Amino acid sequence: MRLRSEEILAAENRDLNKLLASLGPLVELAAAGAAEPSHPAPPQERKKQMAITATRTVRELAVELPGATRIFEKLGIDYCCGGGKSLQDACSAARLTVDDVIRSLELSESARLAAAPERDWTTAPLNEITAHIVNKHHAYVRQEIPRIQALLAKVGAAHGQNHPEMAKIQGSFEDLGNELTPHMFKEENVLFPYIDSMQAAVERGQPVPPPFFGTVRNPVQMMMTEHDGAGEKLKQMRELSSGYSVPADGCTTYASLYRALGEFEQDLHQHIHLENNILFPRAVELEKRN
Ligand SMILES: [Fe+2]
Ligand SMILES: [Fe+2]
User: Fold this and answer.
1) pTM value?
2) Model confidence over 156-166: pLDDT tens digits?
3) How far is residue 290's CA from residue 286's CA, in Å, rounded to a whole number?
4) N or C terminus: fewer CB in 10 A for the chain?
5) Residue 187 Cα to ligand 2 middle (Å)
6) 212 alpha carbon to ligand 2 midpoint, in Å?
7) pLDDT, tens digit, for every residue of 1-14?
8) What distance in Å separates the CA atoms of residue 83 and residue 24, rounded to the nearest whole number?
């Protein structure tokens, strides 16, 4: 029994080491900075770093620490629709040692502070967030859907016989695309323009205009429900593909397809996180205050 625990611990350490190695120069920079800080972080930033504890929710950490989503993604910790769990619970579920995960979050945050600052979406004007989502994430989804569909058709035709899961992955991706297209249309034509108009009114010192849908909470709730549906499709595809591991008889196109699906998943997680955890709560709050 003891041996089994040690094996698990050793496996976890190997995973963490792999993660730290993949963060590469950033972590080295952070380690160097920790030994001899040449640019000490301002007090509010240091306070932010000290708040990385096992009892914080994954969602809170993902919002506060811009580098956290990349680490959660690599470790398989759900920060998007399942972000309400404490870091402790999320680590237990993923069989990871919470102290090691906290350490990698701290290293990543130190590295970020030492490097050029990223855009802080928790304080940016809301119209800049909606523009960023549309220009970066919606454009990416629109570009990738037909490309991945073509790859799925090609791999399905060549390997479908030996890999019946490919037809199911194709079906899930088809459903996901059919949901995301009208979802983004509603965001771009109803919700985001209203959020932009709230931001503009507040900047002009005017009251927020009343929306035809009653309150911003209504479309926000609808979008979040649709996000849960998208999250489910991503989970299904990850399970069907055994975590996007290319089988021994898989060709280069197979590998390209799984890489594309893995990247699509990562982008959609970040996209939904930005909406669910940052944009939507801030829009609801802005409406309440005005
Ligand atoms: Fe979106
Ligand atoms: Fe969305």
Assistant:
1) 0.71
2) 999 999 999 99
3) 6
4) N
5) 7
6) 20
7) 443 444 444 444 44
8) 26
